[in-house]
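Q: Sequence in, structure out?
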Amino acid sequence: MLAEIVDAGGLIVAAAGLAFTIGKHRRDEAAALLLAMVCGAALGMPAWPPPPPTEEHWWAKADALTALATGLLVVVGLFQLWLFYVQLRYIRQSLADTKAAADAAMVSADAAKKSADVAEVAMVAGERAFVFATDLFCVWDPLPVGGPYNWRFRPVFRNSGDTPVKQLRICVESTLRTSPLPPGFNFNQNPPVVGTGILGPNSSLTGVVAPRPPAPAITPQDIVDIKNGQKYLYLWGWAKYYDVFTGTPEHITHFCWQITPVGDPFTHQPTQLLGQGSNLGFPYVQHVEGNCADEECA
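A: Exactly. Output:
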């Protein structure tokens, strides 16, 4: 073993010396390279330049590159999958926000529509024509001259609205009975005699006269009998009309009054001023039935 080491060392020294000598005097790089190869072989070092790579070497490198590329594709695919998941979450959140905004807009639109409807209803209710019987106008017959006088009656209809009435129709009836009106009395038992008229905003007009000629008027004796509870006098009727607003239904108002006279009908002079002589009056009360308006009359 020692001999081999000595021989190798001698060979190395000799080669080095030769390389130095040649390199110094001739500067021959090829010789220096050759000597270096000899030295490497003596020390058991691999040959240089290394041998060209074999086919197996290239296939091994190709497999490594393929594995690396495959790994990179897997990483890229996982990243794209994560990115798609993140985008999907953002899209779902955006859709949820859009739906919430649409729902809120719909709620706001519904609220605005309801508010507009309420405002329209309030405007129509406050401005539309509303006709009702509000007072009693008493008419005496001119004969006999100087009295005593017979009487007929006309209800006063008033429009309390700020708009005029359209297609006004009025019906008035009366009855003089020996007993009160029974419950469920049919106010439409006779064919109606209908009058028409024009009724502006916040104005009044008198209706048709009753009892209607040629029916007899209410006599002074009838009035005394009414005061004594032996007879009962009723006046009823209705007013049908439209308001000026488009799409609104026909309106109707019913009234029924019991007339309860006071004063002396035999001595009363209707041409006298109030406070002179006997003052005859015709107050009235609403009957328990026959008073309604619009849907209440259904």
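The beta strands are 131-140, 151-159, 166-177, 194-197, 203-206, 232-242, 251-259, 284-286, 292-293.
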